[in-house]
Structure formats: C-alpha cells, structure tokens
Amino acid sequence: MQAHVLSGDAGFLKRIRSGVFSGSVHSLFDRTINLHCREKAELFTIACVELDNGPNTLVTDRKRFQNLGIAVDDPVFVRDGALFIGQALALTWQQARQWECRLPVYPEKDQRLRANVAVIKEYVAAHGKPGGLKKALSPANAFEAEVSSLLGARTSQLYQSLALGRWSEACELAIGLVGLGPGLTPSGDDYLAGLFSVYHLPNAPCCLPYPFFEKLARETCQRTNEISYMMIKKAAVGHVRESIVSLLQAAIEGTVEDVIRSLDKVLSIGSSSGTDLTMGLVSGLMLQLETGGNVCLSKS
C-alpha cells in the first residue's frame, strides 16, 4: 500500500531524501508508527493525518495504521523514492511541506503575556483532563492518589528551585520527575517537555545552563520508555511539536480567542498528556514573568 507524506520535520525529510535511513519498526499504534533509525540511534515517527508536526515526525495522508500488516521489527529502508515500512507500506515524500520547530521570541513588554497566562490557567482548571498533574476529584484507587500527590509535590519543589536559581538542585528534582505518572508519556515527562519549551524561547529573561540539559538527558534515558525519552531529549534542545509552538505564539501575542483555539488542540493530546504539557508550559511562563531579569542560575 502507498501513502503520501503531507509534511514533515526538515531533518527527517533531508535524511530520507538522501537515502540514508534504515532500521526497523519500534512500535505500532492506531495513529502512529515509531521507527528505530540505525544510523542515528533515535526514534522517528510516522503520524496519521489528524496529528500535528513534531520533531523526527512525518505526517501522512493515512487516517489510521491498524490492519496494514505491519509488525514490530519489520525492516525500514529507503528505495526508489519511497520509505518502505516492511512490505506493507511505502511512503512517498516528493510533495511534502517542510516543517521546522521555530519557537516565538519572548516579548519585550509582557502585559499581554501575563493576561494570556491567566486565561490559560483558568481554562485548564475548568477544562483540563484529570488523572495526571491535575488531580481527579475521585481517584480510582490509593495508588493513583499517591502518584498524583507525588507529582504535585515534586513539580512544586522544582518550581521553587528554579525560582531561586539553584540549577543543580533543580536538575536533580527534574530527574526525579522522569517516568512518574500514568500514560505512554508519563505526566512528569510531559510537564518537563512543556517547561523546557519556555526556557528555549529566544530572548527569554531566565535561562538554564547547558550542563542542566546535558545531565538530564544523560541520566534519564533508563528512567522512562524510549518514546517518552525522545520527547524529553528533543524538548531539552528546544524542539517540541507544532501545537506547543502555536500555543506559545498565541500566549505571547494572540487574542483570548487565539489562546483558547490553540489550547484546545494541546489539551486534546493523549489522555492527560496535553494537560500535563500545558501545566509545564504555564510553570515556565510564570517563572519567566516572576523572576525574569532578577535571577542568575547558580551552580549550587
């Protein structure tokens, strides 16, 4: 069966256009196929048409990937102008639109951003999905309640360490969040991805030193699953999915309507992943607004 790539990560498209991509199917879901690339030792994703662009991702015209005869460990290779996934699916990319993650510039004047952050917080409180960082009114069991309590405590401690500029302490707390919570991408991982996206905004008043992200990437690869680890690894260098970029853009310069429209798209991600991502993003923006220009991260 043949399908067409509609848009894709610029680096991924460049790789397959050069013919340098081989590997195997890592995992298969209804809306995504994850590929392990032999040359780069990273995961790459083939997404259905309803998903947004993201790092290492190609968005296709397929609505679903189930029942195609694809299996884990099937070979993946480029041949004759197509990316073959086993013998069941061939993807052509000649008309694909190239996408790059370009985060918006942090504003010189923050009045609109402050107002929009308040809108996001209020909307998430009313419409965010519980089960991760947003506590469920009636937890399903004692374990769920305990995990929710841990998430709340650890994200609060991380926030305080970042506010005080204690980056070494903050890094240890961030590592402690990795793998914590429900979902294919655990809530702690989603929170960190949202948080890191803000710290990579050009001209952001607060920043984190490179060793923070280097240590986090080095020490967390065994703490969560490979799919979620790739999300953290990419976010640690400022590469996040298109819907997160759009929400940040709306928060910085958009109207309330723009914010709600972008926020709805993020909140629809996964079970509670979109809510957890947004809560990390809000924490990052609040830290920029509250401590920006007043804190230099120490090495303590």
Structure characterization notes:
The structure is a single chain. The protein has 300 residues and is an alpha/beta fold. The protein has two domains: 2-99, OB fold (Dihydrolipoamide Acetyltransferase, E2P) (Beta Barrel), CATH 2.40.50; 110-292, no CATH class. The protein contains ten helices and nine strands. The protein has helices spanning 10-17, 111-127, 142-163, 167-177, 187-199, 210-220, 226-235, 242-253, 256-267, 273-291; strands at 2-9, 22-28, 32-37, 42-47, 57-60, 75-79, 82-85, 89-92, 97-99. Helix 4 packs parallel to helix 6. It is globular, with a radius of gyration of 19 Å. It starts with a strand and ends in a 9-residue tail after the last helix.
What does this entry show, briefly?
The protein is of the alpha/beta class. It has helices at residues 10-17, 111-127, 142-163, 167-177, 187-199, 210-220, 226-235, 242-253, 256-267, 273-291, and strands at residues 2-9, 22-28, 32-37, 42-47, 57-60, 75-79, 82-85, 89-92, 97-99. The chain folds into two domains: 2-99, OB fold (Dihydrolipoamide Acetyltransferase, E2P), CATH 2.40.50; 110-292, no CATH class.
